[in-house]
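ingest -> validate -> predict -> emit
validate: passed (alphabet ok, no gaps, 265 aa)
predict: started
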Amino acid sequence: MSLVGWTLPLTPTGRSQLVPPPPWRYSGEIIGVDFRADPDRVAAYLPEGLEPVGDGSASFVFADWCSAADVDPLVRDDPARGQYKEAYLVLHARLGGRRAGRVPFIWVDSDLSLVRGLVQGFPKKLGDIAMTRPVELGVGGYRKEPGARFTGHVTALGRRVVTARVELAEVRDGWYPPGIATPLVHTRLWPAIDRDEPAVAELSRAKIEGFELGEVLVGPATLEFGESEFDEIADLAPIEVGEGYVCSVAFGVVGGEVVEIEEEA
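emit:
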């Protein structure tokens, strides 16, 4: 009998695999802040093939996700499996003259999300993430409306690495926040066990379908980066903080593709 699974662990049925194959579906609540970091430091974190936009523009995003997999209904049906939070930094760049984003740091609180991200090229690590949860009734929390205050923070290995706060001021129609609407370019990197050169080292991007964006509320924001001996995110600390935003978003990842730099240039 052969052992099967899209990812480990392999079993005779494949039911124990950590991550099922795509398509994957995502629906989430977002807290984001746009900012500028030191342009030279931003450029230093971009791989060959991505060009800096020159102004150090970046975004930090907190997301509370519900996820699903077409071939495994338990990802959606069991909240312990498919629901999780994550926090990530996006550096804004260009690829072949078109806008692109790069995620140099990202934390999640789910093993499924961590491995699913590594497969795609997200540099995911485990972290503890807290976000203001929007409410529909009562005054025990904030509704998504002007005057509400939303906060997100992420802690990794006992160090608070990022804290974001947004005070909502207005609804902005027809605007797509760059932190969640910019196509991302990743590095898929898998070391080889028998040689120094990696077994896989390539740029990639996801194939997205069904992108939906709910009402976007924006307002003034603060963004603080902490120090950690385990993560170099302080290199990209804000030198100017722009607006923050809160919204709902949904999309599907139906696969991916390798980015050929020669064809993009």
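Helices lie at 39-44, 74-77, 79-82, 111-120, 178-181, 261-264.
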